[in-house]
Amino acid sequence: xxxxxxxxxxxxxxxxxxxxxxxxxxxxxxxxxxxxxxxxxxxxxxxxxxxxxxxxxxxxxxxxxxxxxxxxxxxxxxxxxxxxxxxxxxxxxxxxxxxxxxxxxxxxxxxxxxxxxxxxxxxxxxxxxxxxxxxxxxxxxxxxxxxxxxxxxxxxxxxxxxxxxxxxxxxxxxxxxxxxxxxxxxxxxxxxxxxxxxxxxxxxxxxxxxxxxxxxxxxxxxxxxxxxxxxxxxxxxxxxxxxxxxxxxxxxxxxxxxxxxxxxxxxxxxxxxxxxxxxxxxxxxxxxxxxxxxxxxxxxxxxxxxxxxxxxxxxxxxxxxxxxxxxxxxxxxxxxxxxxxxxxxxxxxxxxxxxxx
Amino acid sequence: xxxxxxxxxxxxxxxxxxxxxxxxxxxxxxxxxxxxxxxxxxxxxxxxxxxxxxxxxxxxxxxxxxxxxxxxxxxxxxxxxxxxxxxxxxxxxxxxxxxxxxxxxxxxxxxxxxxxxxxxxxxxxxxxxxxxxxxxxxxxxxxxxxxxxxxxxxxxxxxxxxxxxxxxxxxxxxxxxxxxxxxxxxxxxxxxxxxxxxxxxxxxxxxxxxxxxxxxxxxxxxxxxxxxxxxxxxxxxxxxxxxxxxxxxxxxxxxxxxxxxxxxxxxxxxxxxxxxxxxxxxxxxxxxxxxxxxxxxxxxxxxxxxxxxxxxxxxxxxxxxxxxxxxxxxxxxxxxxxxxxxxxxxxxxxxxxxxxx
Lengths: 357, 357
Prior knowledge:
homodimer; alpha/beta; Spore Coat Polysaccharide Biosynthesis Protein SpsA, Chain A; five-stranded mixed barrel; four-stranded mixed sheet; 17 strands; globular
């Protein structure tokens, strides 16, 4: 019984505009460290999986870029989505391909654009998850110990007792959508709630069975695709069937509806890097609370995040700003408002100024 | 007796960085309207002076640019300063050349980088100034009716009575350096103080006589230059003598020391456009107090001045900012701090980042 990894790299990441562009979304950016988020996602797991066991799901538009970033992987391991349909079809597609290789295989599902600081703890957590997924044929998710009452994440409530006294493993009581501040504070206080990391482990056949149980329309489409696998029609069938699959997340479509799910508790410095503000708060600051990447000159500024691709940023007497330059776009944004950057992106679409996207 | 005009275009205008650059200082920028400040300075007076009576004093570095902007003027009317030595040597040099043309000539001295809204009132004011300069062989300056307790300008205190009952003409009691807010408020309250516009009218021979009286070292140099005028050595002498002239302003070197000066009161919407903040406050605003020039997209901003040369500026949830893009530089500055932009320029010099200047 073999183990595979699937890196989901089909996202758009508009909240990192203007550094993220249609041509180069968030997972391809080097926001922290020296390598892109996609590369870092692979770096973290490559000790666990040989290259031929790692799949990457990606849009047609970014296939070449993904291959460049992860040139170590065999080219047939890049699965192309003809259209983005959210996580359930993406995961289903990967499960189909993995089951073709080994009907009994288990698989790790990873978003391509998250940040994880403690690689060692992360790997330990995955090992534990695989053990449970394989032993019990169950769905396993990673729940992150919350370090603040974050309202930008979904939460997982666990049962009281550790499963079979395995430390840090619990049955999931329920999944909870993003809460308001009051509820988020209560969640953190109880100690029974975890951030939903979007990292999953299960057998390919088990998740496909659950998709069949809970999203029959998707299951139908996946079966058609599976049947065409390794035939001359494979690509044609994919491009006909995939874009018509229901647009649904694995959380909403499956996880919230299945009763037997295990959660492995993770404590490895995880963040989904959902916005410039999130990146700013994770970055190391100088005595004035400034974070500066790129050419900069400043007088009397405080608590700003400055990110320049190549231009000189000059700042004078400002505070609490996110200042970003990328090619022909300059963004100035209040630190508390970075979640709304996608609204600027929307406005540009409406104004037919797509050249800046 | 003929009348000449001298436009002083040798300034650096660092406070409009990054739009103003070493290669293209403020007077060559199109900050308001469709023409550069230098062109507008000429446009305002060209009904009063035929082209051959208008001189422009400029640095060697900007000679070609000045000729392009004012291609109507004869090329010999561009006087080149081998090195910037402040206004007294600049004016002295122009006076020398004008006296060569007509020993009895009178001359108007104009900065090249100011904004004047009421051209008609301005011209009337100049006519009156010439009349007094010619009748009394005196120095004449234009004092601007202050519309606010500005601390960025020098002031002129006038005597009580109008000179010979000529409306709006007064003897000058004294020149006052830039005051603090308290004094500026008092100045405005009294009704006897005016902004020092840096616009002067006098006979060439009269100002040269006053320079001889009060800045003998400068006078000595100017005489050497004058003697060489129209000889083959003219340029050589200029480049040897001019850079050694004392670096001194006409205000400090002459105006503050001469007792008989007349002031013509001006009320024509003058501003020296000393900073981005000054330009912002003069610009027409939308309902949110925003001024936007260039490609822009924004959500929920207020009271910002946005000036983009070619890049897209995107702003989200910010206020009271000056946001400027010019080529490879992006400036974000609090609206009340734009006087300090020159400190950023200074820092760039110290950091040997001159490529951004």
